Amino acid sequence: MLVFAEALRNGLGTYVKAITDPDALSAIKLTLIAAGIAVPANLVFGVAAAWAIAKFEFRGKTFLTTLIDLPFSVSPVVAGLIYVLMFGASGWARPLLDTADIQIIFAVPGIVLATIFVTFPFIARELIPLMQQQGTDDEQAALSLGANGWQTFWYVTLPNVKWALLYGVLLCNARAMGEFGAVSVVSGHIRGQTNTMPLHVEILYNEYNFAASFAVASLLAGLALLTLALKSFLEARHGSELARSQKH
Amino acid sequence: MTSMPHSTLARTRGTAFAAARLRSRSALPCSGLGLIVLIPLAGVFFKAATLGPAEIWNIVSSERVLAALKLSFGTALLAALLNAVFGLLVAWVFVRYEFPGKRLFDAAIDLPFALPTAVAGIALTALYAGNGWIGSLLEPLGLKVAYTPLGIVVALTFIGLPFVVRTVEPVLRDAEKEFEEAAASLGARRWQTIWRVILPSILPSLLTGFALAFARGVGEYGSVIFIAGNIPFVSEIAPLLIVIRLEEFNYAAATTVAATMLVVSFAMLLVINVLQAWSNRHSIRHAPTAIKEK
Prior knowledge:
The structure holds two protein chains of two kinds. Chain A has helices at residues 2-7, 11-20, 22-55, 61-73, 76-87, 94-100, 108-134, 137-144, 149-160, 162-178, 181-187, 197-206, 210-237, 239-246. By secondary structure, chain A is mostly helical. By secondary structure, chain B is an all-alpha fold.
C-alpha cells in the first residue's frame, strides 16, 4: 500500500516522531472518544429502530425506513453545516446554550453529534433485513411461554441477530473514526483540542509535511485493513446469516 | 417455510397493549432521529427560506456557485456511470469465475468503504500527481489527472465502486445460469441473452447501485479536496464552496448552496426511484421465471 510506503519514506524515526507528536496523540485520543460515544449511541438507536421496523406494523413505517437512510444521501459537509446553523454563533438554539454555558460547535460535542449523524444508518440497515426475514415466530413462542417483553428481546431477538449486529458495529466504527467532511465543518481545527485524526492528516498535508501526514494516515489505513480483515472473517464464519441480511 | 405476517405479534397481544408498547419502543429511535437528523436538516430549509427569493436567486445564479454545482453533479454523474459499467463487470467476474486470490480481491473491493476519505484523498493524490507512480506515467501522454476535474472523477469512481458491486452482486448470484442456458438452447445469441435475459433482471439493482454511487459522489468532500486542486470555476466542488462560505461566516450563502444541493439530489434520486419502479415492472414482463423463484 502506497500510504505505508510514503509514511516510511523518511525512515522509522520520523514515523515514530510524527505519531508521538503531542498534537497527533491528542487527535488520536479525540477520535477514540468521538467513536466511543457515537458507536454505542448508534447501537442503541439502530437496534431500537430495527426492532420497531422489523417486528411491528405501524403507519409511516416506510417513511421511517426512508428517514434512516437519509444521512447516506446527504453530503457530510451539509451534515456539519446543519449543526453550525443550529448551535453556531448565530444559530437558533444559541440562547439556550449560552444560558447553560455549553459550547457545541468548535468543541467535542459537535464532533460527536456530527459523527452520530453520518453513521446513523449503518447498524439499523444491517439489522432490518435480517430481523424482517426472521419474522416474529420466535418472539411469539417466547411470549406464549410467559416471557415478558424485555426478556423476549434480550434472550430471543438479540441473540438471533448478534453477528449482524457486530458487523454493523464494525462498519459504523470504521466510518466514525474516519469521518472527515462533517467533522471538519464543526470542529474548528484547533490543534491539540478539536482535531481528529483525519483532520490532523489534512493539516499536516497542507503544511507540506507529507511524511508526518502519511504516518498518521497509515494508522487510519491500518484501522481500515483491520476492519476489512474482521469483516471477511465474520463473513467466512457466519456467512449464511450475514448473506441473508445483505440481500435486500 | 410458511411466512407469518409480521403484524401477527401485534394482533395476538391485544391491539391497545401492543400499541402502547410500540409507542414506547419506537419512541427512542424516532426521538433520536428527530433530534439528531430531522430538526437540524429542516433548519437548512428554514434558514434558506428566511432569505427571500431574490437573494436566493442572487446566490444560486452567481457564476462561482453555478460552476461548482455543475462540476459536482457532472463529475458525480460521470463517475457513477463509470462505476455502473465497471462495477457490473467486477460483480460478474466475482459471481461467475473462480480464481486464485478471489477472497483477497473480494475484501479489497470494500476498501473504499473502510478507508477514511481523507486517507483515500492523499493516497490518490500522491499516486496521480505529476511525480506519483501513476501520474508520472500519464503525464508524458499529456494527461494531467491530479488538480484537474479528471482527478475528481478518479476520486469519485474510487469511492463509488463498492456501491455498485455490492448491490448488483447478490442479484446476479440469484439470477441462475439455467436461464442463460435455456436462452442459449432456444437459439439466442450471446448478446441476445445478455440484453434480453440478464440485463432486465439486474437492471433495478444496477440502478440502485448507480443512485447510491451518485448520491455519495455529489456530497463527497474528504477524498476530493486533496486531488481537485480547488481552483474556483475549474475544480472547486459545491461542498467545498459551502465550507469556504462557512469559514467566511457567510451562513446565508452556505445554506443556500446546501439547500440547492439537497433539492437537486432529492429530485434526481426521485427520478431514479421512478425509473427503478418502471424497470421492475418491465423485468417482470420479460423475465417472469426469475421473479417467481423468489
